[in-house]
Amino acid sequence: MKLNEEVSSKLQLIRNALSETEACALRLRGTDWFAWATAGGSHTVLLTAEAGVAEVLVTPEEAWILTDEIEAQRLKDEELPENYQVHASPWADAAVREDFVREATGGGTVLSDRPIPHVEKRLPASFSLHKQVLMSSELERYRKVGRLASEAMTEVLSAAKPTWTEYQLAGAGAEALWARGLHPALTLVAGERRLPLYRHATATGEPIGRQAMMVFCARGYGLFANLTRFVSFGKIPDQQAELHRQIREIEAEALNLCKPETSLDAVYHALAQAYQQHGFSDGIRKHHQGGTTGYLAREIVATPNTTDSLAENMAVAWNPSVAGAKIEDTFVILPDGGLENLSFDPNWPSVEVEGRLRPVPLEVG
Prior knowledge:
The protein is α+β, with helices and mostly antiparallel strands. It has two domains: 3-132, Creatine Amidinohydrolase, Chain A, domain 1 (3-Layer(aba) Sandwich), CATH 3.40.350.10; 136-364, Creatinase/methionine aminopeptidase superfamily (Creatine Amidinohydrolase, Alpha-Beta Complex). The protein is built from nine helices and 19 strands. Strands 4-3-2-1-5-6 form a six-stranded mixed beta sheet. It has a five-stranded antiparallel beta sheet with strand order 11-10-12-15-16. It is globular. The model has no long low-confidence stretch (mean pLDDT 97).
């Protein structure tokens, strides 16, 4: 599917939603929805922002990108498919954009992912499924993002030294992602001392020591590749190796359930039981376990009450963990009910678990 064809299909989905809800227009402001609607375009300038420097406005007849005069030409040249017209307003006069929207919509009902309170209405819940179930062209882009992210991880951890600080390792990870055209949305690092203490270990100035964990949420074309890897300088101690073995088996329980129509709470409960069976009675409570992914690092996080169902061509990333061990990759659910690992690097050491190759800690030196 060509890019313009993909966008045309998505514009039709939007217009179907307008017809069903009798709304006059739909506005998309979030980084996730902008990338979805533009087939991988980016309106991001500030990486940490949930919304960027442009938004999408679609009516039954027209499709617009709303931005300001600072950004318009760059977006036209580098980010936007031909399906959209561009409306550029003065950066210092936000009222001009809102006047344009009122004129384009005739003052009618406007739906939005981030609605202006008391002015716009939230997107129908059913519409969000379109962002989570990926088209073939989206999957092609996702495979590229996953491959590049995993190659960056392998490159950096293979070169790491025990004298590096956590900042240095995180920085090298971010550099490797940028060099491949990916946004380093998240680079967590924990060295030897902090590894058993914290699940969300933001980097510090401590030397990493004899082992380290690094976590990527790498964004490309708006899609997130999520993966976690470990490096050990010298042979990993048997006790640590056993923790990694158990966490791989716990993860397998979740992956085995990732089939169309399985509910996310079912996966959560299976993970809770797996932790208990391996002797980690409260393991499920120590960290969120993941869920669906795609245009957000986590589209939906699985909880005991998350009844949303999985579907084919939906991506998932689970991250079960215990103190000192964790595992994570990004998978897509295939039409036949199987899983494709989007973030697998054949150059990283792995073992087979339940018919899948899963990463083991890299031993260096």
